[in-house]
Amino acid sequence: MAEGVLKCKTDAGGYRHYILTEDCREIELHCGCALAVKLGAWIEGSFKPEGWLKGRYEADLCWPAPKAFLYFQASPQIELCCLIPEGVEVKTK
User: Fold this and answer.
1) Residue pair 91/63 in contact by the 8 Å Cβ criterion
2) d(Cα 43, Cα 78) in Å, to the nearest integer?
3) CA 28, 4, 89 angle in degrees (round to 5)?
4) This prediction's pTM
5) Residue 29: which pLDDT band, with cuts at 50, 70 and 90?
6) Which of 38, 48, 52, 36 is nearest to 92 (CA)?
7) Which stretch of DSSP H or E encloses residue 51?
8) How far is CA 20 from CA 16, 24, 72, in A?
9) Cα atoms in the Cβ-side hemisphere of radius 13 Å centred on 49
């Protein structure tokens, strides 16, 4: 399992998202992989973690604004999608 901060960079193949871990490793993300986003709230100027939202990573890596998305089940028949901003804490298996 890898845990760290969601980042985006460009290389010879174009844009890509990755997890930057505390020990500075870069774990590349691929569309369809399991991903969890840390949830929480800002209370009195500091972030209070509240757990993880688990789902599936997907991306739109088109120039000029590549985007990462988390798809997750809201109910057995409903799948929702949210935009994941760069810098958010994430983890994957």
Assistant:
1) no
2) 31
3) 110
4) 0.88
5) very high
6) 36
7) strand 46-60
8) 12, 6, 23
9) 8
